[in-house]
Amino acid sequence: MKERSTLISGMLVVTICGFWELACHIFAIPEFILPAPTRIIAVALLDAPLLIPHAGVTALEILLGIVLSLLIAVPLATLMFAHPAIERALAPFLIVSQAIPVFALAPLLVIWLGYGIASKVLMAAIIIFFPITVSLLEGYKNCGSEHIMLFRLMGSSFGDTLRLLYWPWALPFFFAGLKVGVTVATIGAVIGEWVGAQKGLGYLMIQANARLNVAMVFAAIFWLSVMGLTLWVFVGYLERKIIYWK
Question: What pTM was computed for the model?
């Protein structure tokens, strides 16, 4: 079944790229408006020595953003589950943190933290931590009442119940939130680089766009897509290894 899904996805990508390639040649679309897929792949591979250092910077920002968001989200979700009053108090702030457009926050973070990597890491973390926090909290709450009652009858402390029941129960929810988080992580890092940076794929896209080098812009998007897909697959691999009973 998995091989069949992969084959269907591959055929869909090939079909879309085929129509795209034909449209570029039939309608003679200029490269500075919409380059053909073969041209984008050529730029992505032949200009790899230029793209890879910028991709490395963006990847580092994303990975640090994921680590920072995990350090915030896991304790915060656990604290909100253990103390519902804290959840009710913090819920409006969590919602507001996602309601504010990231484009509005990016210039402020650059002013406060500078043009270095810190502002991009924080921007990525702000986007990632919300789905992880909400998913993990819902996972805790979803725990079966009969299991909770059993642990209470056995005299288990909250810490032991959290370690032996709530956390394993919430792991599928946690990984679901983490998959969403790593998928959108590139958004935060790239927006931060658009506002102010000297390295990274977002910075390269701005420079290429100013020179009407649209093929390079698409090549940067291609590398960002590879990054997002790799993170998604890696999280899926961790999920299968850790939640072996699923």
Answer: 0.87
